[in-house]
């Protein structure tokens, strides 16, 4: 997850612009990260990855974006990726 946060997450800032140390994934960032996940854990690339994410990504996003605010906390993304892959046992370390 560290590489996912480093590559795809956004750090939340205070109104003054100071970083908070809290990281979130917005829809577009989560989708980009999902391409890496389905490649690594499901072996899907190219059109197969597109087809898979077209079928499952939005459903997964809606399941995890419980506040309907267009963001998911980075701490919850391992569950997001497991749910997306349909395997709650995937090792994401």
Please write the string of helix (H) and strand (E) elements. HEEHHEH
Structural class, by secondary structure, is alpha+beta
Terminal CA distance: 6 Å
How many strands appear in the DSSP assignment? Answer: 3
Q: Widest sheet: strand order?
A: 1-2-3
Radius of gyration: 13 Å
The total tally of domains equals 1
**Count of helices?**
4
Strand content: 15-25%
Oligomeric state of the chains present here: single chain
Q: What topology emerges from the helices and strands here?
A:
Blueprint: H1 2-8, E1 10-13, E2 19-26, H2 27-42, H3 46-64, E3 71-73, H4 77-85
Antiparallel strand pairs: 1-2, 2-3
Helix pairs in contact: 2-3
Short note summarizing the structure:
A hairpin with a 5-residue loop joins strand 1 (10-13) and strand 2. Helices cover 55% and strands 16% of the residues. The chain has 4 helices and 3 strands.
Care to describe what's here?
The chain is of the alpha+beta class and 93 residues long. It contains four helices and three strands; from the N terminus they run αββααβα. The chain is globular and about 45 Å long. The mean pLDDT is 93. Helices cover 55% and strands 16% of the residues. The chain has helices at 2-8, 27-42, 46-64, 77-85, and strands at 10-13, 19-26, 71-73. The protein has one domain. The chain has a three-stranded antiparallel sheet.
């Amino acid at each position: 997850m560290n590489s996912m946060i480093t590559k795809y997450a956004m750090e939340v800032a205070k109104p003054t612009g100071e970083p908070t140390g809290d990281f979130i994934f917005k829809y577009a960032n989560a989708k980009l990260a999902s391409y890496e996940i389905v490649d690594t854990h499901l072996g899907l690339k190219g059109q197969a990855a597109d087809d898979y994410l077209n079928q499952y990504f939005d459903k997964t996003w809606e399941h995890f974006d419980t506040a309907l605010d267009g963001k998911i906390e980075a701490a919850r993304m391992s569950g997001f990726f497991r749910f997306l892959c349909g395997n709650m046992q995937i090792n994401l370390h």
